[in-house]
Every structure is written in structure tokens, then in C-alpha cells.
Amino acid sequence: MIKRLKINQDSLEEDAYGYMLKWYQLLQERKYEDSKQLCLKYITGCKLVLKKYPWGEENQDYNKVFILAILFRGLQDFTYLEKIQNDKEWYKDTQKVEYTWIIMLDSKDRIEFVRQQLLYKNELIEIVLDKISSLKMFFIENFGEGKYLSPDILMKKSICNICNNDIRACHHVAGRLYNGVICYSVPSDDALITSVSTVKVPQDPRCRIWSWQIIGNEVKDACVLTSFAIDDFLRERDEKVGIFCSLSIKNIEIF
Amino acid sequence: MKPNFSEMNLKELRTYMLDHRDDDEAFYAYVDRSKAEGTWVKMPPLKSLEDLDNYPEFLESIRKDREKGSYSMQELQNLNKFGLTVEQVKKYQVLCLPENIETVNDQDNLIDASGTANFSKLLKEQGVKCANSYDLGLEASELERRGLEIWLGVTYILDKAVLPIVTGIISSLAVVEIQRKTKLSSQDLDSRNNTKIHIELRIIEEENSTLIKFEGNPEMLRKLLEGISDDQETKN
Asked: Which of A88, A168, B76, B87 has its CA 20 to 30 Å from the CA of residue B41?
């Protein structure tokens, strides 16, 4: 069981910054497991606050805790990226390439979300984002800009995760934070993928087509949809889901 | 037996064409008549936002179209097929409707665009009297398109005074979506250039009505709507 760090309401941001510095120090010393554990402990502390609401039912600080949990999950993802790049040959292993691509995007999306929410500039966040940007350039140089799969999904009804009402009926705006919970819509019924297209600029770049997945006119076991959300690790069922399928595509010109 | 299209005026022909969507002959008769009566403006594809400045006749055509009153309140009357009366819907300033509301006759087939719910909520936040499919009692499915484009369905503006607010909301929605979907990297520029907004906007007044079917850059839509607002203010 992972121990947790205590989250103090009075020194939320100062404590978080201190843990960030500690995390970065561990990373520079290449103590990857320790830096990962530090992130996990901090996230566990945040989860407890967001579950028990110890500072009253409604409090703006819950939104800060949510943002800091996202930050430390992004740093945890980044720890993996630093560790994998220690192996100079990592990019020759197709499985590692696919996995690293996804973790890089997870880390980037989470840390950029945090940067948008902060009212001040944090130099450690800038350093991490610069490094992620360099890694992305490495992908582009070695594997190209890529093409992606993008599905259309038809849902009978969508429910708001905050109030459980029809998403059209309530006042919660998807993408906004409410008392430490980000609003999104949940399909209440069977969702149906009605079509899948190849696109250059996808909503979810995790659904990338890799050259080794193409055999003739067929794309083998390609990811068309992922369950990624910046806060997926805070939800009750913390598991990643992806829908993979093989597709026949006419006139395939991907690379 | 088919009616004689040549004996119909443009408005009657349009009504017939909308009621008989499988009738190709009616469709082409309507297209030919529209061209002949000079209500169409030909425009090459725009190369940039600034390029819009080179086609002032486009905005002028919208203004003339409005003066001619080519569509009137017909669109509101068409909502009768879903049990909605003109009196019911006229109490709203904006209707955020399913994207296929004008082309299907059966509620079971209505589809809301994925951006419609947020769009209507942001309008309500700004104090606009706005109704979406739920408020109107319509059962609509929702189509979520995962590409980097923003789909807002069909929007009826019933009170032109709220047009500046609608313009602002569309701009901010687009900014939020672009910020969310585009990040660092060399794909940035491509992403911004490729982001499209899809909306069918009808500005409906007692006597006049304007239709804007837009698929393109959000900035271009903002500029277009601001042009219409400015034009309206000048007239007032």
C-alpha cells in the first residue's frame, strides 16, 4: 500500500513546490523509483482530500488540490520518460515507441493543463515542458508527423458527471472545475462508433498509426479511441482503456 | 403529379424542395431559379482571414437578402413537425438546435452536435434566453466527432440584439477548444490553420431572415458576424 503525504490547506502551494523540488532532485540523481514514489504519495494524499472533503463541503481550495494532483501525475509520467531515455536504443523497440508516445502525451496534456491554471510562472514546469517538446521533436524526426485515426461516436444520451442530469439540462460547463471535480459528459447508453477517419490533426494523438502496423492496405491493431482524461487516475476505476481494431483503408498514403 | 415549377415563385419552390428532398428535379429547379434571380454570390475559397476584406459583396449580399425577406418565419413554422409552435419558441432569443433539424421529420433521428450543449450553457450564463433540444422537449442523440473541429449544429437567432453576445461566445468557445486541442510542437501552426468551426446560423426576424452556413476558421466567422452586427447597428 502506498503511503500518502499529508496535504495541508494552509500551505498547499508552498508544500507542493517543495515536493516538486525534491522530485526534480531525485530525477537528476536518476533515482527514478524514488521520484515516482514521491509523486504517488502526493497523489494519494490529494485523492483522500478530494474523497473526504475535510475543509467543508464547498471550498475553492479543492480545485487547487485537483490541479496539484494533475501536476504530480504529469510529473510521474515524466519520470517514466526520463527513465526510458536512459536506454539509448529505446526507439528501436516498437512497443516501447508506442508506449512512450502515449505517456509523453499524457504528461504533456496534464502539465500544460496545470500551466494554464497557474497564475504565476513555475520554472520547473517550463523545464519539464521544454524536455517534452524536445522528445516530441525526436519522434517527428525519427517517425514523421504521423497520421491518426479519428472516430465519430453516436450517443443516445449523455449525463453530466457532476450532477448526473442530462448534460443538456444542467448548468455545468464541460471542461470546467467544480469543487475539485472537472466536468465531462458520460454516455448513459451504448455508444456507437459510426465511422473512423484518418486525419493529420486529431483530437487525440494517442490514436496514431505507426508504419509497422500497416500491412498492404490494412492497418493492424490500431488504436481508434482511448479513455484518457487528465484526471482518469482520480476516478474510482483507475484503468486505461483503448479500443483497438484492424481496418482496411483504400489508397493508404500515410508516410 | 408534380406541380409546374415555373409557375411557383422562389419561396414556394423552396418550400416544395424542402418538403420533397428526394426530388432532384425540384432541387435543380430551385438552384437554377436562385442563380437566375441573382441571390447567389460566387466567391472563390478564401486563402486567409484578410482575404475576406476582398469580397465586400458577400456581406452586401447578406444585407440585401435580409431586406428581401427571402425566408421570413418559415423556419419556425417548420418546427411544428416536432410539436413546437411559433409562440412556444418565440419566447427565446436563441435556439441551439440539432444539426439535422431541418432535414428530418422524425424525433428519433434528431442528432445534436457535440458542441451544442456547452454553447447553449455559455449563452445562458451571459443572460441570453436560450433553449437547446432538451429545453424544447426534443429527444436527440449526440454525435461526438473526435477530429480537431468544432460542431455547433443549427442555431436560430430570434433576437438580433444578442448577436454580439453570440459572436463573443463562439469566439471564446473556439479559443477554449483550440487551447485544449493544440499544444506546443511543430503541429501548432497546422492545428490552428486546420481548426474548423461548423455552424448553420439563421438570423430570423418577423419579415427578414438571413442564413449563414459556415465551415471554416473561427476567426473568419467572428469577423463575418461582427460585420453583420455592424451593418445592423448602422441601419438602426
From this structure: B76
Give the rounded distance of the alpha carbon of A144 from its chain centre: 22
pLDDT tens figures, A62-120: 999 999 999 999 999 999 999 999 999 999 999 999 999 999 999 998 998 898 888 67
Q: What are the distances in angstroms from CA B169 to CA A176, B4, B124, B181?
A: 15, 45, 10, 18
Residue B143 to residue A194, Cβ atoms within 8 A: yes
* Range A45-65 average pLDDT: 92
* Percentage of chain A lying above the pLDDT 90 cut: 54
Give the global pTM: 0.72
Please tell me whether the interface predicted TM-score (ipTM) of this complex is above 0.85: no
**Residues of B engaging A, defined by a Cβ cutoff of 8 Å:** 111-112, 116-118, 120-122, 124-125, 132-135, 141-148, 176, 179-181, 183-187, 190-191, 194-195
Q: Do the beta carbons of residue A207 and residue A219 sit within 8 Å?
A: no
Quote the pLDDT of residue B181: 45
> What CA–CA distance (Å, rounded) separates B35 from B39?
6
pLDDT recorded at residue B170: 83
Q: Percent of chain B at pLDDT above 70? A: 67
| Closest chain A residue by Cα to residue B188 | A201
The reply to whether residue A201 touches residue B121, judged by beta carbons under 8 angstroms, is no
Q: Any idea what DSSP says for residue A232?
A: G
For range B1-27, the mean pLDDT:
78
Q: Are B46 and B52 in contact (CB under 8 A)?
A: yes
- Residue B178: predicted pLDDT: 53
CA of B127 to nearest chain A CA: how many angstroms apart? 12
**What is the C-alpha separation between A241 and A109, in angstroms, rounded?**
17
Q: Taking CB atoms and an 8 Å limit, are B148 and A199 in contact across chains?
A: yes
The tens digit of pLDDT for each residue in B171-224 reads 777 665 554 444 323 334 445 555 778 899 988 877 667 788 888 877 788 788
A139 touches B at CB < 8 Å: no
DSSP notation for chain B = ----GGGS-HHHHHHHHHH-TT-HHHHHHHHHHHHHTT-----PPPSSSGGGGG-HHHHHHHHHHHHHTSSTTHHHHHGGGGT--HHHHHT-SEEEE-TTTTT-S-GGG-EEETTHHHHHHHHHHTT--EEETTTTT---EEEEE-BSEEEEEEEEES-GGGHHHHHHHHHHHHHHHHHHH--SSTHHHHHHHH-EEEEEEEEE-SS-EEEEEEEE-HHHHHHHHHHHHHHHHHH-
Q: What would the 3-class secondary structure string for A79-137 be?
A: HHHHHHCCCCCHHHCHHHHHHHHHHHHHHHHHHHHHHHHCCCCCHHHHHHHHHHHHHHH
A195 CB within 8 Å of a chain B CB = no
